[in-house]
Write a structure and sequence with these properties.
alpha/beta; TIM Barrel; six-stranded parallel beta sheet; 44% helix; globular
Amino acid sequence: MGGSIKAGLTSGNLGYPRIGEKREWKKHLEAYWGGKLEEKALLNEMKNIRLEHLRKQKEAGIDWISVGDFSFYDSMLDTAAMFGIVPERFGHSGGAVSLATYFAMARGNQSTPACEMTKWFNTNYHYIVPEFGDRSPELVENRLLALYKEAKETLGIDGRPVVIGPYTFLKLSKGYERERFKEVLESLLPVYAQLLQELEREGVQWVQVDEPALVTTVPQEEMKMVQESYQYLHSSAPKLDILLQTYFDSAEHYPELISLPVQAIGLDFVHGRSRNLASLEKHGFPADKVLAAGVVDGRNIWRSDLDDRLELLESISRYVPYERMIVQPSCSLLHVPINLEAETALPAELRNALAYADEKLTEVVALTQAVRVGHEQADVKESLASSRKALQALNESPQRAVRSVEVGRAVLAAKPRAPFAERRQLQQEALGLPVLPTTTIGSFPQTAEVRRARRQWRKGEWSKEQYAAFIREQIGEWIAIQEQIGLDVLVHGEFERTDMVEFFGEKLAGFAFTANGWVQSYGSRCVKPPIIWGNVDFVEPMTVEETVYAQSLTNKPVKGMLTGPVTVLNWSFVRDDLPRKEVAEQLALALRKEVEGLEKAGIRMIQVDEPAVREGLPLKKEDHEEYLNWAVEAFRLTTSGVEDSTQIHTHMCYCEFSDSIDAIREMDADVISIETSRSHGELLESFGSVTYDKGIGLGVYDIHSPRVPSVEEMSALIRQALQVLPPSLFWINPDCGLKTRAKEETVQSLKHMVQAARQIRASL
């Protein structure tokens, strides 16, 4: 083994949040994009943030620190840029990829659409999808080597460079025929080999190669390709030690995985605990390899039960001695906030039971110390006692009183709606919509003025009445704008909402909200997920007042807008003492009362958004059915109490439509809109093999990019869709909400969308 493992159990970390304690990363990026920060200044600011994060991990006592996990946008994009995988439309002529091209791939520009963006496995983080073309991959810049040297020379950290592995990188990319998978994978291997060889020559001891795709359902023939790939990489850099890291679930093809010619294997013993333990028990673990044991949850914010984790480590040690084990989080800490210092307003029993990234590093070190020096050593004993006390106080809180029987009875009492064909006729009579009706997904631009008004109200500088009057002004302005544009179905704009989950959580019982619990969603977009820590209950109407006011200003239908139970669940940090199914049922029953309240107030079109249904989909196909069954049940529980003449809409982010079609049908929404503009063609291909017999809107332009698409561009997408979808069921809309866009580009884009719809409508 080329690298030396320190004596006894060691600690490690797989990655650290990149956004900065006060979101400095986000602010510098947006200043650069806005022309307020020069490239040289941006590079310097990013270096400062990157080094500070490494310094903190060193000071926390982490033995194995990953370098290269820091990114200006996304690690998949970093890997594509490092290998010169740039779509031709960006005009890249070879060599190192400029910062301008890098950001154009991520965000697009007025002349060039961005690369597709989708969710990273079943997390709330988005990655940029690399696009392979005719140009062969090549190592145009070894960023890992530069970052390794920077950490060593500046901080004395002999870090562990981290790179996304070839199998995962290719599985998550596009731009090649799937039957060419083996061929394209083989074209990548010499580039990875060159990367590793250059690190080896520099004296790097360990490299972390992330292969989370190996926890998904991997075909046997692809696992054989993985084996051949790592044989090739090992022979290319035989003195370099590789930690092959999996996370988010248990490893597939465990016997083949542990036989790979790598020096360490990383397994997730949080989200893949039972199956990974079963694999250890059945197949053992090689005597010549190190096991990196992910025992601290890298995806949720709850404090670890240290007694339980020590028992877990003891169970693992029956198969792997401690001297060949690394204690670490289950995955990168990218998915949790940075630290708890600002969370002074939370209830004590809740705050004491939380652990953000810095606290999780402390837990990793505490567990390592507990094994090294024993449980009775003073500081270890104190850590264990503190953990016990905090978790006991949380679980004894009245907020967590058992309610399973009550919820179960309510679920059984829910009744289904009439068949879609009957409902559709009633709805058309009531609403009188034209063919190819136009609408938006819900939100309109949250301008600086809107954000400032909200701050003034929250600080008490504005009264509740002042703020309500301001919101009404915004609603009135945008109802008028929508009518002028010519949209057929209007929305009130959601100006009163900070976030589509946070807004509802603030009005329901069982939620808590953080002061600085920010995590990266995509690019510089950060979100502050609410915490579901107690039982969820309806308290009072949440959206009725604003929706009814908007409807009073127009004769056109206005959609009521809610976030669905599964999305609230998947976009929150969720209590871990109940099955997620039970929490979803609690949410559904609370939101059902809001849906019924909207209908009672005269709103006949209600959108219950579920953009995150697919995010919660388990990574193994064998687990899909169980999840989809209760996810669909939660949606129908929310929506099935209305009259058949009330039209239920929903919105979903891009999903593998053919894989999810049965569940989408079972949701039984009258109209579904799907985020597809960056992957429109692929989704339409799926309609060649499946039939969807309810209303559907495929996003005709990308709201994640600042560019304004032309009428012709959107017309082409509509015509393409109508080749496989009937006009009588097709809706025209953007692919997502417009909250993050500027007013001018929003208005112009919607004008083009309506013009395109009218042109097609006239030609039918």
